[in-house]
Design goal:
- The protein is an alpha+beta fold.
- It has 16 helices and 15 strands.
- It has three domains: 64 residues, no CATH class; 182 residues, Endonuclease, Chain A (2-Layer Sandwich), CATH 3.30.870.10; 188 residues, Endonuclease, Chain A (2-Layer Sandwich), CATH 3.30.870.
- Helices cover 40% and strands 19% of the residues.
- A 15-stranded mixed sheet has the order 4-3-2-5-6-7-1-8-14-13-12-9-10-11-15, sandwiched between helices.
- Helix 4 packs antiparallel against helix 9, helix 9 runs parallel beside helix 10 and helix 11 crosses helix 16.
- Pfam families: PLDc_2 (PF13091).
- GO terms for molecular function: cardiolipin synthase activity.
């Protein structure tokens, strides 16, 4: 829940009277609306209520609370309660940088798979790495390994038909997620942005990397992007498999079950991990709660890396409150190399309030920064598909792996500081003097940012 209204016994009678509200709610429940349309109606009713409160002379209030320190064990109990995902012991974790490390590890795991392969991803484009994955997946399927591939119909729309045909002919179970349908046009804006590969139900990969040549190499130039992924073994892999299974069931109306996909998993390492999936179309945004709680509970440091930085008002409030508590808040975002000029300028348009309050924002210089990571106080870290924007929090299905581990968190801090050395700080004065052309583009994008 993004905000709350404090009880106000002075609220005028015109807002308290429930008759009209009851009639509207009854109409909604009795109609055969799509889930998307129902959620849209709920949002409209909320906005109408806010306007009614203002019109009647009452001002909405947000419930405040003292920060609950991340160092306190109850932070994790609170996070589990809010997100419905347990923090589990017993994992081996390896952080992977860019395509050189990530693609090599993923392809090796695919080629060695014996029981099953499941893979959901947003980006699957054409090129060298797309061909390599198609060959590897088809080869395993031909050798009797059940292989399932689910691609987002928007993010992977440029995929070559030859690779689709190759995999289907090899026996890969292939499906598109939410293709455009004339009778469900609004659904098309709700995508799966998850990037989850599970091998034999025991090894899981996630992060920001898509299947495209832009991720090849090691971010060595402007044409090869910077990203971060992770491979994990241990009990949390069941939750990664569930993220795939959830999307697969929606797309195909079939389930994956049994020990080929959900084998017994033992504790094999020292790292505590949480697998967090969210599906805003189903009114579920656990990753939003993850960010809110982590920001509100950080005590010393908070380092965020994201491809799209468009925090809403509540997240901005929490970031500013963290600075006021003495937390060193730093954010790395893309610079001149980005994949969407409008979103880049829209993000820059929102820097002012944060910069003025002391949030430190840096623009990565060598190439497009596509990683999505967060690390707090040197003990708590997150890697996944979630960006710091409305699309990830309100429109996309996402998946993040979170870690309670000093070793993993310190490694993420080291990576962050290396990226920071290749980034340029943005000052409040510089932001105020940005060209009017950039201001206009940012202002224009602000009108439609809820859809982006």
């Amino acid at each position: 829940m993004r905000s709350a209204i404090a009880p106000d016994h002075s609220t005028p009678y015109c807002v308290k009277k429930p008759k009209i509200a009851k009639i509207v709610v009854k109409m909604i429940y009795q109609s055969h609306l799509t889930q998307h349309f129902y959620n849209s109606i709920k949002r409209i009713l909320f906005l109408v209520l806010m306007l009614a409160l203002v019109a009647c002379g009452a001002t909405p209030k947000r419930l405040g609370q003292e920060p609950f320190p991340l160092s306190h064990p109850a932070f994790f109990d609170t996070l589990e309660a809010y997100t419905g995902a347990p923090i589990l012991s017993g994992h081996h974790v390896r952080v992977l940088l860019d395509g050189d490390e990530t693609f090599a590890a993923m392809l090796k795991a695919i080629r060695e798979a014996e029981k099953s392969i499941t893979f959901v991803t947003y980006v699957y484009w054409k090129g060298e790495i797309a061909d390599a994955f198609a060959d590897a997946l088809a080869e395993r399927a031909r050798n009797g390994v059940p292989v399932y591939l689910l691609l987002d119909s928007q993010g992977a729309k440029s995929m070559e038909e030859k690779n689709v045909a190759k995999m289907k002919e090899g026996g890969v179970h292939f499906a598109w997620f939410r293709p455009l349908k004339w009778y469900k046009p609004f659904q098309y804006n709700y995508r799966t942005h998850r990037k989850v590969l599970v091998i034999d139900g025991r090894i899981g990969f996630t992060g920001g990397i898509g299947i495209g040549d832009e991720w090849l190499g090691h971010a060595q130039d402007k044409d090869h992007w910077r990203d971060t992924c992770v491979v994990v073994e241990g009990p949390v892999v069941h939750y990664m498999q569930a993220a795939f299974a959830e999307n697969w069931m929606e797309a195909t109306r079939t389930m994956i079950v049994g020990d080929l996909y959900f084998p017994p998993l033992q504790e094999i390492g020292p790292v505590k991990a949480q697998g967090l999936r969210s599906s805003p179309m189903e009114s579920s945004s656990e990753v939003y709660m993850l960010y809110l709680l982590t920001i509100a509970s950080s005590e010393r440091t908070l380092y965020i890396t994201t491809a799209y930085f468009l925090p809403d008002g509540l997240l901005q409030d929490r970031l500013i409150e963290a600075v006021q508590r003495g937390v060193d808040v730093r954010v790395i975002v893309p610079g001149k190399y980005n994949d969407n000029y409008l979103l880049y300028q829209l993000a820059r348009n929102g820097y002012g309030r944060l910069l003025k309050a002391g949030v430190k924002i840096y623009e990565y210089q060598p190439t497009f920064m596509h990683a999505k990571t967060m690390v707090a106080d040197g003990v708590w870290g997150s890697i996944g598909s979630t960006n710091f924007d409305n699309r990830s929090f309100s429109l996309n299905d996402e998946f993040n792996l979170n870690f309670h581990s000093r070793a993993v968190a310190r490694h993420l801090e080291e990576i962050f500081l290396e990226d920071l050395a290749r980034s340029r700080p943005i000052s409040y004065e510089e932001w105020r003097k940005r060209p009017y052309r950039e201001r206009f583009v940012g202002w224009l994008g602000d009108w439609i940012k809820s859809l982006l």
